[in-house]
Amino acid sequence: MRTAYQSAKKISAADAAALVKSGHWLDFGACLSQPDVFDKALAARVRELAEVNIRCSQGFEPRAMLEADPHAEHFHWYSWHYNTYERKKSDAGICHYIPLNLGEVPDYYRRFIDPIDIVVLKVRPADADGNFNFGPTNTWNRAIIERARTVIVETSTAVPHVCGIDNAVHISEVDYIIEGDNAPLFELKAPPVSDIDRAIARRIAAEIEDGACLQIGIGGMPNAVCSLLKDSGAKDLGIHTEMLTDGLIELYKAGVVTGARKKLDPGKSAFTFGLGSRLMYDALDGNPDMLCCPVDYTNLPHYIMQNDKAFSINSTTQMDLQGQAASESDGHRHISGTGGQLQYVRGAYASKGGKSFICMSSVFEKKGVRKSRIVLDLTRGNIVTTPRSDVMYVVTEYGMVNLKGKSIPERVRAMISLAHPDYREDLERQALENRLLPRALHVGQPA
Question: Which residues form the Acetyl-CoA hydrolase/transferase C-terminal domain (predicted)?
Fold first, then answer.
């Protein structure tokens, strides 16, 4: 371990990229931790290198090295969770998904993944004590640094100083420092909120009690939940979540989130990464009420359950009549990732008074054809994100049901009640034909 602050050497991005050799494994962390000037410098070396492998999560567009190598002849990108850009690259065969439960990733690095040749992370410039703050992205950064042969930081004054647990790397652990371009951080635009989102959100918001501790995913529906809670009169809500969103920050600013009744980190809003607008990043900067934590702390169920009334709110893309939720693929085409959905479903269930909600619109349109999200059988190749045994509440614009403790016929009836009316009769017929409903039992009759 180095002791002198001067032990880390300042280096240009080009010289840092020159350290990369063919066959190396690199890691860029996740989300806002991924470097930019190093990425461009490495892209400039594309013809000199072969079989360079990079792990990241949610690589924001454009990634210079991927654009410089459109046929993946030199660089191979592996992602823990896809965003829109990575999904397009996956469709082109140059980005590959790594299955996971997100809260387990630090353990994967420490137990199962070979040492990393080079890790490069975007950080805030060192403070007076020699600490480079990770800003709003903690995730598995500490685990990567422990496992890396060479540690490089790319500094940026755009990275806010975010309070947290192990949310920094000391200069004594760093080999090289690149001065970044200080460009503004990537901002994730909030998706529009639809009438269906609002209808679903109203059902969920009605369930949220004073003192509830929230985990909310990304999308229009979670944003709608936050909007409703802002004016609902709910008190002393807490946050223990994977992703911090603009909607949650608005609840905090409105005084609805205080964390006063949390058992774990009372008075603090715990998260592992924040992704949203500049307003969020400004709200996080130097704010002692915010706690950016390693992902195993935020996502492992035995931590989630320590807060009473843990409420987990996540979306899915398709469910079958028995309650399996497929939230990350369209057949064999991967579209997002498991993330923390399953772990939060389990953590909320184990929490005293906790509830988990899996939400979706009843229908969607693909290539001009409307289809039901509730089906007899999942699309061939679809990945089950949350098993039927774990699903608690399911919500569409047509209602909300709790599947816990229900038999197969009861589940089928409940799921059909959530489907769009145009599809219910056909779903009942399919259920009868496949013996999921007894012949004498029809939808609308007691099980």
Answer: 276-431
Write out pLDDT tens, residues 237-285: 999 999 999 999 999 999 999 999 999 999 999 999 999 999 999 999 9
Measuring CA to CA, how many Å separate 54 from each of 104, 111, 354, 429? 19, 19, 38, 49
- Counting Cβ atoms within 10 Å, is residue 325 exposed (0-12), middle (13-18) or buried (19+)? buried
Which residues are CB-neighbours of 6 under 8 A, at least 6 positions away? none
C-alpha 447/C-alpha 442 separation (Å) is: 9
- Per the structure, the complete domain to which residue 262 belongs is given by 195-433
Question: pTM of the predicted model, to two decimals?
Answer: 0.94
Give me the chain's average pLDDT, please.
94
Catalytic choice (86, 104, 154, 242): 242
Query: CATH code at 17?
Result: 3.40.1080.10
**Among the listed residues 97, 85, 50, the one whose alpha carbon sits nearest the alpha carbon of residue 69:** 50
Q: Is 33 helix (H, G, I), strand (E, B) or coil?
A: helix
Question: What is the number of structural domains in the chain?
Answer: 2
Beta bridge partners of 243: 273
Active site residue 242: yes
Note whether 239 and 336 are same-domain residues: yes
